[in-house]
Every structure is written in C-alpha cells, then in structure tokens.
Design goal:
This protein is mostly beta strands and 107 residues long. Helices cover 0% and strands 43% of the residues. The strands form 2 sheets. The protein has a 4-stranded antiparallel sheet, with no helix packed on it. A 3-stranded antiparallel sheet has the order 1-2-5, with no helix packed on it. The mean pLDDT is 83.
C-alpha cells in the first residue's frame, strides 16, 4: 500500500549544562538615606565607606547634585534647600554596583 512504518526508541538521554543561565546575587551596599522626605538636606550614610559617587536627578533626568565618595568618609550631605519640592532619584555607584532610590523633597 506504499506506507512505510519507522519505529525508533531513545536509549540514553543526557543534558549538559555548559552555559549557565542564572545571575549571581550582587551584594547590596548598606547605607541609609535620611530624612526622606527631606526639606533642607538629604544625608547618605554608608555602613562601610567606599570609593564611588552619588548623583541626584530631578524627574526630567537632569542632574541636580553630584558627590564623589571615598573610603575614609561614611556620611555625605546634599543641600536641597534651593531645590523645588518633588520627587528625585538618588544614584549610588561604587565599583560595579549601581543602586537607585527615590527621594522626596517637601518644603
């Protein structure tokens, strides 16, 4: 009748994981941002001082403040007295780690 029947079976089946597909968890920098909401100043305190930078951006993405951090100082302040009330983003960078946090200024 012209039909061909093929039968097959899998005897051994192995999966080799040579390309990892996960991401290792990054260690978070331990710090505090206070007060939040802020009026005159925003203070950033690191539990372990480290070299890096802190930048503050307004809601349009314009940089309004920048600080270089070092391994000898744990606390930094940003003067917010002349900034309009609103929501800002604080970017903390050290080495390969970058973290962003929302800060509210309320006069």
């Amino acid at each position: 009748n012209g039909e061909t029947v093929v039968e097959a079976a899998v005897d051994d089946f192995s999966i080799y994981d040579t390309y990892p597909t996960g991401v290792n968890a990054l260690a978070k920098t331990t710090f505090s941002i206070h007060p939040n909401p802020a009026d005159q100043t925003v203070n950033i305190t690191f539990s372990a001082p480290t070299a890096g930078s802190v930048q503050m951006y307004d809601i349009t993405g314009r940089q309004v403040a920048a600080i270089s951090t070092n391994a000898n100082t744990a606390t930094y302040s940003i003067n917010t007295a002349n900034m309009p009330s609103g929501t800002y983003m604080l970017m903390l960078q050290n080495g390969t780690t970058v973290e962003s946090h929302k800060v509210v200024i309320n006069h």
